[in-house]
């Protein structure tokens, strides 16, 4: 039996700040036409995963999470390891701002978790 992750398996909370920023960007940046916000694992460090957050085009394998004003894309690998997360948009006193992803499963993916094959996606055990 083949394992397939579905959009309904993903619990993505998006804060009001992140929703507002995404809507503002989509409405006012013509270069984002036909692009969608993507959540993607960018790498792995001792503390857990690093993430790439930004706008891209779709890929046939993507899961699409539809919200009222926008769609979020997530690839199956990222979806498997990020099934419960929160997307926020934060500002600090230095004038820096950006999207922040909190993965509530992060504690399960610290160190060399991949040596425990039960924590790998089912398609990785082939």
Helix content: 10-25%
What is the CATH third-level topology name? Hypothetical Protein Aq_1857, Chain: A
**Beta fraction of the residues?**
35-45%
Give the low-confidence spans.
none
Strand adjacency order, main sheet: 3-2-5-4
Which homologous superfamily in CATH is the superfamily? HesB-like domain
The outline comes out as globular
Along the chain, the helix and strand elements come as EHEEEEHEE
| Number of helices, where a helix is a run of at least 4 consecutive DSSP H or I residues | 2
Top-tier CATH class: Mainly Beta
Oligomer: single chain
Q: Which labels suit this protein?
A:
Hypothetical Protein Aq_1857, Chain: A; four-stranded mixed beta sheet; 2 helices
Q: How would you briefly describe this protein structure?
A:
By secondary structure, this protein is an alpha/beta fold. The protein has one domain: HesB-like domain (Hypothetical Protein Aq_1857, Chain: A, Sandwich), CATH 2.60.300.12. Helix content is 15%, strand content 37%.
Folded structure, characterized:
With 126 residues, the protein is α/β, with parallel strands linked by helices. The protein has one domain (10-110): Hypothetical Protein Aq_1857, Chain: A. It has two helices and seven strands, in the order βαββββαββ. The chain has a four-stranded mixed beta sheet with strand order 3-2-5-4. A three-stranded mixed beta sheet has the order 1-6-7. Strand 4 and strand 5 form a beta hairpin. The longest helix has 13 residues, at 16-28. The radius of gyration is 15 Å and the shape is globular. The two termini are 12 Å apart. The model has no long low-confidence stretch (mean pLDDT 85).
């Amino acid at each position: 039996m083949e394992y397939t992750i579905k959009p309904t398996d993903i619990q993505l909370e998006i804060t009001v700040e992140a929703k507002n920023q995404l809507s503002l960007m989509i409405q006012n940046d013509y270069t984002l036409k036909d692009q969608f916000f993507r959540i993607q694992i960018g790498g792995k460090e001792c503390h857990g995963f690093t993430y790439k957050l930004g706008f891209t085009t779709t890929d046939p394998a993507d899961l699409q999470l539809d919200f009222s004003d926008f769609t979020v894309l997530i690839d199956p690998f990222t979806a498997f390891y990020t099934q419960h997360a929160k997307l926020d948009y934060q500002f600090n006193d230095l004038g820096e701002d950006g999207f922040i992803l909190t993965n509530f499963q992060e504690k399960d993916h610290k160190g060399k978790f991949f040596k425990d094959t039960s924590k790998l996606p089912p398609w990785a055990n082939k």
